[in-house]
Amino acid sequence: MVKRAPVYLLLILGVVVAIAPFVVTVLASLKTTVELVQGVFSLPETPQWENYRTAWTDGNMDRFFVNSVIVAVGVVVPSILLSAMTGYAFARFRFRGSNLLFGFFLLGLVVPLQAMVIPLFYLMRSLHLLDSLWALILPQIGLSLSFGTLLMRQAFLTVPREIVEASIVDGASSWNTLWRILFPLSRPMVGTLALMFFIWTWNEFLLPLVVNIDPNYHTLPVGLLYFQQRWTSDIPVIAAGSTIIFLPLTVIFLLFQRQLIRGITAGAVKG
Amino acid sequence: MATPELPRVAVRKRGLSGSSWEPWLYLLPGLLIFTLFVVVPVLGTVAISFANWNGIAWSTAAFTGVDNYITAVTDSLFWGAFWNNLVLIPYFVILPAILGLIPATVVHQMGVRGAAAFRAGLFLPYIMPGVLIGVVWRWLLNPVFGPVNAVLERLGLPTPSWLGDFTLALPAVGMIGAWAAYGFCFVIFLAGMQKIQPDLYEAARLDGANPFQEFTAVTLPGLRREIAVVLSVNLINALRAFDVIRATTDGGPGRETEVVALYMIDTAFGAKQVGYGASIAVLLAVTTLVLSLLVLRLFGERDG
Q: Which residue of B has its CA nearest to A122?
């Protein structure tokens, strides 16, 4: 046990360095500016919830938060359903050009958003969708489909063939086989995918920065950037704004750590 | 592992009487969205990169061939930004890989209780938005009221202005990148090590290998795949760096932390040189793809 003490020390140091910035941010969000100068690791005398009120209402974080939630739901749910359908098409049917088309979908894994964001701006402009949440939702569904198609196809292929054959013998249509049998059986993969899509969407910065100028349609990351520029030296309020972004992520991370790490390990191929 | 396949419906064999359109019904909605919002914009970037366009009306666009690429090759601002991306590589790619590899090796060879908790704690920064990381570190590194300098001052060490300093800004941004990535490297490496056959270690020990020799003879060769993944993912992040820099230095001071992605966005949307911006986007995408494939080829499995 004594021999392992340095090992634990090393690991604890690694974890402290990784999470200390978030811990001091939460502490700072509950302090006055004066308290903050006295020390970052101390607890606040009385929690200053006004910082959150300022960030939430004066800083418009309420609107950014609602926008982020709408965009996240608007991306994750359709992406899951559409990925299940495209994944099913490739898992179940062999048709002319299926391999080529599958490769076509996977192209999205290697092309960065930077290589499409300029035309996306002008595409949205001609669709009259600039400064709207649609400009964030539609491209991000498209971007999710590459990874989604790949993983849903994989999940469907691992379902034992007897189960699918039995359903076909029972006379189930291919549509019902997908939604009543394969989709429920692939729940772990659906969960992992939903988490990945959620985090990508929640964190996306470049796309909303480019397509939405009107602050009414900002999501949290872009909102936080402008927020920081407005409250430059009011660290407690900036810390409150930051906490509003990372607390939901942290809660989801702690709840679904296992699925999430599995997804990111698998998603490491998606650069 | 062999994966049992679904009974595939061989549509072609059924002939016209069958439902050869059936898979297309499942594909259609996804394919439409993917084509319109991913494929068309990618092709659009390539197309615009061959034109001179101010972005106002389509009629003002003029085909100029490879002019934009020639401009890029001779543009010292572009090369300056690209050089900064290259400087970030040791910080974004190599440093976090080493910082992740050491604790992963120790945990794997000695075994610890509560490995899952350590894993979660180390991994947390990796899922956070870049802007948030930038905003938090901008405060932590603030020369006047930032906690980092407060600690340094108490220790009697110099207190530079980090992100505002002409020589320190880029390394400081690099360190933020390393901080954000080392937990990811740890997790990937540890998962890889746990897949290595234990009897390989026993065999090495029977041959009289010490822990360091076990590491070089068994662990490292067994980690080829994971090393390839970690290095290529980190490399992609170094070349595409945008969010953290936008939120910390926005390219400054001067152009000390200007990177290609920032230059691309400022060119296309700030300076309204849309065609030139698109050509930078193409160069960035191609460079990223080529270099990451190179890393995968160098470190990936030999059999491929």
A: B55
Instruction: Measure CA of the first residue to CA of the last residue in chain B; give whole Å.
Output: 17
Residue B83: give its domain's CATH number: 1.10.3720.10
Plot region of B57 (φ>0 → left; ψ -120 to 50 → alpha; else → beta)? beta
pLDDT tens sequence for chain B (304 residues): 444 556 665 444 433 334 678 899 999 999 999 999 999 999 999 999 999 998 888 888 889 999 999 999 999 999 999 999 999 999 999 999 999 999 899 888 888 888 888 889 999 999 999 999 999 999 999 998 888 998 899 899 999 999 999 999 999 999 999 999 999 999 999 989 988 998 998 899 899 888 888 899 999 999 988 999 999 999 999 999 999 999 999 998 999 999 999 999 999 999 999 999 999 999 999 999 999 899 888 886 554 3
Question: Is B58 inside a domain boundary?
Answer: no
Examine residue B1 and state whether it is found in any structural domain, yes or no: no
Q: Is A7 exposed, middle or buried (0-12, 13-18, 19+ CB in 10 A)?
A: middle
Domain annotation covers residue B44: no
User: pTM, whole model, 2 decimals?
Assistant: 0.91
Which residues on chain B are in Cβ contact (under 8 Å) with A149?
30
Flag whether B283 is in a domain. Answer: yes
Distance, CA of B235 to CA of B225 (rounded, Å): 15
Instruction: Indicate which of B33, B38, B190, B280 best probes the interface with A, i.e. most A CBs within 10 Å of its own CB.
Output: B38
Pick from A4, A10, A11, A270 the residue to mutate for testing the B interface (most B CBs within 10 Å): A11
> Which chain B residue has the Cα nearest residue A84?
B26
Among B38, B179, B278, the residue with its CB nearest the CB of A118 is: B278
CATH H-level superfamily of A20-267:
MetI-like (1.10.3720.10)
Asked whether this complex has an ipTM greater than 0.95, the answer is: no
